[in-house]
Description:
Elements: H1 28-37, H2 41-49, H3 54-59, H4 62-67, H5 73-96
Amino acid sequence: MDAKANGSMDTKSPVENGQIPDPANWGVADVVNYFKATGFEEQATAFQDQEIDGKSLLLMTRNDVLTGLSIKLGPALKIYEYHVKPLQTQHLKSTAS
């Protein structure tokens, strides 16, 4: 993963060495690129509009994703359950080590 001039990391590929990089260091563009790469191209713009960076992403609750991003319910549920929640769990495990 390469650092960009704006301080964000280049996350064109969301998986690195079989592991997703820690989102705590992601900028807004990295969060947007992650969701685009995972098939949520249309919904990724909501993260940009709300200026959600990696640290913000790790703080999001289920309710934040379902109601705060103006995303349709189906995709919002998938984004939270299959992406946000696992990223939060991975981050907690990596910081506890």
